[in-house]
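Reading is simple: the token line describes the chain's fold. The lines below illustrate.

. . .
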Amino acid sequence: MDLPFYITNAFNAPGWIAWSGNIFLIGLIVLFTLVILHMFAHALNLVKLKNWVKGEYLQVIATVLIAYLLIGAGFTIWFVTSNIIKSVYFSSQPWQIQKYEQAYGDINKIIFDPFEFDQYFIKDAIIGCQKNLYTVLYVINGFYRVTGTFRVDSQGQEPKGGVWTTMITSPLEYLMAKISHGILFGWINITLLGVIKYVAPLLIQIGLIFRIVPYTRGFGALLLSAGFGFLIVYPISLALLLQYQGPSSICTDIKPPAQMLSKEDVSLDFSDYMDAKRIITANEKEINNTVDSIKNLVVIMYMQGFIYPFVSLTIVFTFIRQFSNLLGSDLNEIGRGLVKLI
């Protein structure tokens, strides 16, 4: 296994903090706009506008401070949990420590970016395992298929269609279909993580702007919560959940019965029906053990590919709901504010 993850020095801020300087810039722009409005209200003696602007000064400052407080808390959580992820990963795969030390030196000074960790773990440990298992099932199923396609009639030598292996090939093809679904969902999850990494910061910055405007303040709080939820909570919770089911050694060790392969590649020769049947008979015990091992792994794959991402999304939506309420967001209030704005 190659060195998988994006590595950053533990004493440097993670890359997604780089855009945080925009928050200060947004705050300055809004304050400048308020100053212009204040001067305009003072010149025309608009008392209501003047009082409103005075109240908004503190609102802008408070919103910017809240945003930076969230970034500070997010970085702390990111740093602590990233080190936990690293510790759990090295505990489950101690043979990786030497590779990292050779490449980066002291492993205590490196941490894993949760986004890169999730994407690589899904691609290599989960999808890579599924591809390997699919290949094994394909080879085994191919030999059962060819031996079940033809049979010799007892009253003559004419080959006729036969279905005696259907009870074996049907479960194998069922497992192959489920593995295909797992591979597809894994790639969807990898793409989702890539989109979140770049969209979530935009949600935070747009939410900050809406949070400052009175009639869209609740909607802005909702966007802020969604941005921080997907940027911090989702990748970290998913990485921690994935560590509970590390890659099984079966994923790399399992191979089709040796006689079913030509050299090192999957090269099938079904030209001789009797030879195919002889291979199956000679490897029947090994084939059964292989299929049983794969059956046990399919359940784990469904946990990793389907259940854990949905659990992480549930955690994220719960965080968004609760934290948006903490910031003063309410669905009814958002609706009333948008109606007033329109």
Q: What stands out?
A: The beta strands are 7-9, 110-112, 150-152, 159-161. The first helix runs from residue 21 to 44. DSSP finds ten helices and four strands in the chain.
